């Protein structure tokens, strides 16, 4: 037997290795750390190394908010969808991990065949020398266990698994962002609901006052002390106040409908959890001290999700680049084959093989290159999305910090105005009853008092809304502690 030189076995490997110098390397996207943020916020805010307790920015003293929030975190349709996406990503990760493990299959066959001895050149016919004959009708019984394994020497499958891991992390961050959005949206709607109830109370008090004034002017007009026109004016003001109440009922219904959508409940269930006549729950908390923008914003769930997707896109690019490299695999088979079922488990029936091989892409007419270009473009898109989301977060915080200060200043001014206008209305009413002022003065004073009282309620609700917006812009209370470090480590893994 001619001896085969090992050189003949090695030359394909050496040739394929020499082709690696001409492979496309792929351009990785910039790292998240290359996106520079300011050292501090433009709006005035105290700086600390760790964000203070910011739960007080929410209406935590409102039992209705607590009940609706807890329900939403269990039954909200949006959160159920986010959790389903986590399960999808988790299944993808299991599949990517399984691709790196051996694939083992089993099979059993029974084959009935008929052959023509003439195809063997007459050997094995009836007149063959030595009495050697080939059976024309054969039944072959066989069974085997086959295994194959991709050694993944260049890390293509490992990079794909890393991408799947990062997508799972991104899905978890998306779920955290959904929880944050649900909490903030429920807080906003509960605040609006309480504000509408407070405004309705102001209008109800105004209606009661106007009813008294109508009765008083009617009595004075009947006695000839004031003109009949004063009664008409009182009635006009009363009808105007009653007309302002109706839109609030419609607004309240719209808020209840939004809360039902957010929590996945009926309007009746939402009303039961809100309770009757709850007051507007003002937090009164000042702006919390914040960390520097680079630390604060990168902890937001939506920013974390974008960072994970950027790292996953980079891993996908690495996997595509590695498709250019040789693939080394091992295949093994162990089985039994016999012409009679009774001989299937005999020693002679045992067959087996082990094959090691390498596959080298030589000419694919640009298929791999196109996939690499596609992955590069996807990575560039992921980086652009990351920058957009990061600077959107920066803008959200800056806007919320300014809005909180403005809302507080407005509320403070309106509180003083409401007290002044209320005192003026009381004084005008006293002077009118004593015949010192006409009814027009009473009307103007009462109109100003009612307007400032309702404006104060709206301003107080707005101050609460701006605090909720700040809570959301900050990213809420930490739900995921180590995502940024994990994403960086996964991105830089070999």
Automatic annotation (TrEMBL):
Main localization (coarse): membrane
Bilayer topology: Lipid-anchor
Gene Ontology MF terms in the entry: efflux transmembrane transporter activity
Pfam families for the chain: OEP (PF02321)
Signal sequence segment: 1-21
Classification via SUPFAM superfamilies: Outer membrane efflux proteins (OEP)
Domain of life: Bacteria
One GO CC term on file: plasma membrane
Locations listed in the record: Cell membrane
Keywords: Lipoprotein, Membrane, Palmitate, Signal, Transmembrane, Transmembrane beta strand
Gene3D superfamilies given in the database record: Outer membrane efflux proteins (OEP)
Family: Belongs to the outer membrane factor (OMF) (TC 1.B.17) family.
Identification of the protein by name: Efflux transporter outer membrane subunit
Organism: Alterisphingorhabdus coralli
